[in-house]
Amino acid sequence: MSGVMGEFGLVPKERSKLPVLCAAGLGLVTLLFSWLQDSDKFSERAGMIAFCITIAAFIYSMCLFAEEWLFHSRQRYHGRINEIFKACFRKHVVLGMCAVFLMLTLGGVSFSREQWSTMALMCAVYLLLKSLGVLNLAPVEISEICEMKKMNVAHGLAWSFYIGYLKFVIPDLQNKVNQYSATRGNLSSPRLHILLPLNAKVPTKPEEEDTNVVFHENLPELVRDQAGVRKRSYKNSVYKITQDNKTFSCVLEYATPLLTLYQMSHESRAGFGERERKQQVLLFYRTLSQILEDSLECRNRYRLILLNDEHTGDPHYLSREIIQHLKQQDGEIHMDPIQELPNEVHPVLEEGPIGHFNGVQRATFPEVSMSSEPTLMFSQPNSLRSEPVETTDYFNQSNARK
């Protein structure tokens, strides 16, 4: 699981529908204001504006269709016109044009020459604003679409890190830790601790960041055939962390995909600045946390440690953060399998003295064996008004003796 010390103040949450709700509310208020100003021509003017916007959006979609059909039909769509149509025309634009067509043909709607001129002018203004980029999506809208469609660099790196490494390393880690503990001693935590620096700067050795973090030794290797490589070896390292003359030990490593983000931010061709890099690191953290938490094989076997790069003048920041996470894990409650208590009440025996039916007395006579096969005992149906009648075997046998 991921840590909770300060991460929630850094990791961005998923965006809500607040902008849509606000826009819808303001639109309704504006419509009400317009209706109050001129209720007689409100319907006519509103219909004409919706008519113009729909036609302008359809014309712009036609321009997109022309580009894709003339220059990209074979390379991107394998010559399939229906795929090009789906890529260029949104559903609400098509539905709007169908409504406009029905209005003009079956609805008997007609416009004057002045109205047609006004609508043509509105369409022209819309197309010009669209071509100049005035009506393009805002950066936050693009970011929301990329997050929703899982199109960010961080999404790909997080899934690659999980499928190509963590998915089979973390489930096998418990066996490696047990082998290590049998000969070297217990670790402070059996989980895999993954460090994620916010600045994406991944050092070769943790000792370069903090002298209190020292490499101890590697766990037993995991060997498997992977991507055409026979007997590929995967290693996990154990580190000793010291603080106030106390020593802790755990399996520790950096998230290697962050090194890719760091190197991309230093390549001008990638178009990846420092601000974008930080956002991608946070998104990587959030995505990887969700992936691992949804994985039954990895849940509760890992620890994500997000390292804030704003610390200055603290040479032991890394060891302090790791130990803080280790101490936090000591306070976590782990649910153990339910075990049978020694004085637990056992099922009722088929035969025997009545004293053996009571749970307390049953515990004082452990020599009485239990029936190996349970027997269902039914009573005869009685009227709701009748008095209760004892029908147990023991009661009937007692009356027979009498």
UniProtKB/TrEMBL annotation:
Residues 44-150 form the STING transmembrane domain. It comes from the Eukaryota. The keyword Transmembrane helix applies. It is a multi-pass membrane protein. Its main location: cytoplasm. Belongs to the STING family. The chain crosses the membrane at residues 18-36, 48-71, 92-112, 118-140, 152-170. Residues 372-385, 393-402 have a biased composition (Polar residues). It is found in: Cytoplasm, Perinuclear region; Cytoplasmic vesicle, Autophagosome membrane; Endoplasmic reticulum membrane; Endoplasmic reticulum-Golgi intermediate compartment membrane. Keywords: Endoplasmic reticulum, Membrane, Nucleotide-binding, Transmembrane, Transmembrane helix. GO terms for biological process: activation of innate immune response; autophagosome assembly; defense response to virus; innate immune response; positive regulation of macroautophagy; positive regulation of type I interferon production; reticulophagy. Residues 372-402 are annotated as: Disordered. It catalyses: H(+)(in) = H(+)(out). InterPro entries: STING (IPR029158), STING_C_chordates (IPR047191), STING_C_sf (IPR038623), STING_LBD (IPR055432), STING_TM (IPR055434). It holds the Pfam family STING_TM. This is Stimulator of interferon genes protein. Residues 152-329 form the STING ligand-binding domain. The keyword Hydrolase does not apply. GO terms for cellular component: autophagosome membrane; endoplasmic reticulum membrane; endoplasmic reticulum-Golgi intermediate compartment membrane; Golgi membrane; perinuclear region of cytoplasm. GO terms for molecular function: 2',3'-cyclic GMP-AMP binding; cyclic-di-GMP binding.
